[in-house]
Amino acid sequence: MMKPSSFYRLIKSMPCSSFVDGWILKQYHTIPAAILGATITGAIDDSKSFSLIHPHLVPGLDGSWTNNQTSSCQILLPGMILLKKYITTLGQVGIVNTCQRWGVPQGLYEPLNQYGEKLRLRMTCFGRNWDPITGYEKQDAPQKNIPYELIHLANTSIKDAQAHLNLLPSNFELPSMSPDMCLVNFYSCSGRLGIHQDCDESDDTLRKGLPVVSFSVGDAAEFWYGHTRDENKLRRVILESGDVLIFGGKSRLIYHGVKKILTNTSPWSLLQAVQLRPGRLNVTLRQF
Ligand SMILES: O=C(O)CCC(=O)C(=O)O
Ligand SMILES: [Fe+2]
């Protein structure tokens, strides 16, 4: 019996996969074969080194990852901005493929918390190393550069959010930043993330409120946030595929967490194009 590759798979197994054990095979989207055939060229051979990249689906750097025509901007709190439907389907496909390609061979691991318990997600990072227990302490492990496309998308998102803020009478500040760490999280349908603050970055970053930029791809999530850890006082927002959430300025140290994943809410067009496994991919960029 073949063991699943050590690379954790963002993209679900093809029905003809040689992977027969592990939870990877337990859930399938029911995508009719006719649709698969229309968009995915050729069967994927899982027995070789794991890569499901379809180069023709990776967008160029021509701005096609963003879609300002149909997106909208919501200010959730001072410094906390949600760009709804900001990333095009093509851009979302690009994010999945980029994370998949860049993640080889270590893949996304199941991190532990300080009590030795598994978190309810998988993760990897590009740029500076970070993990939930030691934070940024361990920089000796090999690092992978942050994919340029992700940096570009983060910068464009911040610029667009700033442009929106400039149109408003309020003077909510949203500083720019130069991302040097990119955290990739994948939540299965039962995944979640407890309420926390992102406060491991440098004092300078936190003091200046340099923003975290967060991309959501796949199933939607119920995201809780607010100025307190008290869950009764937190607000909720649904983060959907293609949304970009930015929290900086006065909201840089906001408490937040992912309460639940809303299963079967991935856009059909995304599943057709890239077959992201059931669940949610979240990519955050930040400056240490
Ligand atoms: O998945 C999300 O939307 C949030 C992720 C997050 O809070 C983090 O990685 O620190
Ligand atoms: Fe966070």
From TrEMBL:
Alphabetized PROSITE patterns for the sequence: FE2OG_OXY (PS51471)
Cofactor section: Fe(2+)
Source taxon at top rank: Eukaryota
Signal sequence residues: none
Domain Fe2OG dioxygenase: 178-288
Ligand binding (Fe cation): H196, D198, H256
One Pfam family from the record: 2OG-FeII_Oxy_2
Gene Ontology, cellular component aspect: cytoplasm
GO molecular-function term, one example from the UniProt record: ferrous iron binding
Keyword Iron set for record: yes
Cofactor annotation remark: Binds 1 Fe(2+) ion per subunit.
SUPFAM superfamilies recorded: Clavaminate synthase-like (SSF51197)
Keyword entries, A-Z: Dioxygenase, Iron, Metal-binding, Oxidoreductase
Recorded coiled-coil stretches: none
UniProt-listed GO biological process terms: oxidative RNA demethylation
InterPro entries found in the cross-reference section: Alkb, AlkB-like, AlkB-like_sf, Oxoglu/Fe-dep_dioxygenase_dom
Family: Belongs to the alkB family.
Protein name in the entry: Fe2OG dioxygenase domain-containing protein
Species this protein is from: Tagetes erecta
